[in-house]
Every structure is written in structure tokens, then in C-alpha cells.
């Protein structure tokens, strides 16, 4: 996917600290169907040649009597995400999906001046709401 970002500039350190201290409300763009299909194709290759983290996901879903390929459809992001996580959000979303909503520890980057908790919590809440909607309707 192409890199997309927002830019804000200042020469004042106090303004910079204030910017990082204020909660930021960012509208993330939705992924197109072709972008989601590319993600699924890439993941299908990783599943086929499964090693490491992908193997662990396969084992986790297998133990819950689920197919990883089907879980991925529900766990893939529908929109672009914040560049906060060390690993793809698919890993922790799949764990939540399999464990029925307990919140795992999610590895994220440590950014100076930024409180990541609201971003991570918002990400988790949005995903859990989507899962609840899926469970109700199917």
C-alpha cells in the first residue's frame, strides 16, 4: 500500500509539546476492495509457507476449531491504521476473535510525547464492535 501521512510543522518546542499532548482526531481512509484482495493474497502465501507467527495463528485457530482463512476475513482491517504497532494488527485481532474479546497485550511502538493508549483502545473497541455486529447478524 502506498504511504499516506499528514504533515504539521512548527519551530516552537512548546507548540510541538502541546500538539502531542492534545488528543488528535484523525479520520482514516477505508481500504479499497482491490487493496483488501492484495492483503488476502499475501496472507494466503504466508499461510501456505507458514512459519513463526503465522504458524502460531494457525495453531490458535485450529485449537478453536476455526479455519484461519475464514477468521482472516473477519479480522482484516477495513481502513488504514495508525503506524503504531510492531506487528500487523491481524495478529492481535485474531487472538481477540479466538478468545471472544479478552484484550491481549498489543506490542506498539514507543513514541516520545505521545500517549498511545487512546489510539490502541479506540482500535480495539472498533474491532470488538464490528465482531459484535457480525455475531448478531450471522
Mean pLDDT: 78
Q: CA-to-CA gap between the ends? A: 31 Å
> What oligomeric state is this?
single chain
Q: Using DSSP, what is the number of strands?
A: 0
Going by helix content, strand content and strand pairing, the class is mainly alpha
**Helix/strand order, N-terminal first:** HHHHHH
Give the low-pLDDT segments.
none
Structure annotation, total helices: 6
**Rg, nearest Å:** 17 Å
Q: How would you describe this structure to a colleague?
A:
By secondary structure, this protein is mostly helical. It contains six helices and no strands. The two termini are 31 Å apart. The model has no long low-confidence stretch (mean pLDDT 78).
What features would you highlight for this structure?
elongated; 56% helix; 138 residues; mainly alpha
Could you give a quick summary of the protein structure above?
Helices cover 56% and strands 0% of the residues. It is built from 6 helices and no strands.
Amino acid at each position: 500500500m502506498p504511504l499516506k501521512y499528514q504533515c504539521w510543522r512548527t519551530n516552537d518546542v512548546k507548540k510541538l509539546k502541546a500538539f502531542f499532548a492534545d488528543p488528535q482526531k484523525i479520520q482514516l481512509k477505508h481500504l479499497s476492495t482491490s487493496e483488501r484482495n492484495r492483503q488476502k493474497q499475501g496472507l494466503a502465501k504466508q499461510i501456505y509457507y507458514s512459519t513463526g507467527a503465522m504458524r502460531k495463528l494457525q495453531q490458535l485457530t485450529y485449537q478453536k476449531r476455526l479455519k484461519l482463512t475464514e477468521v482472516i476475513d473477519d479480522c482484516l482491517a477495513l481502513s488504514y491504521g495508525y503506524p503504531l504497532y510492531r506487528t500487523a494488527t491481524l495478529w492481535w485481532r485474531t487472538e481477540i476473535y479466538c478468545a471472544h474479546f479478552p484484550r491481549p497485550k498489543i506490542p506498539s511502538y514507543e513514541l516520545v510525547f505521545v500517549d498511545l493508549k487512546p489510539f490502541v483502545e479506540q482500535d480495539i473497541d472498533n474491532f470488538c464492535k464490528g465482531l459484535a455486529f457480525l455475531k448478531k447478524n450471522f
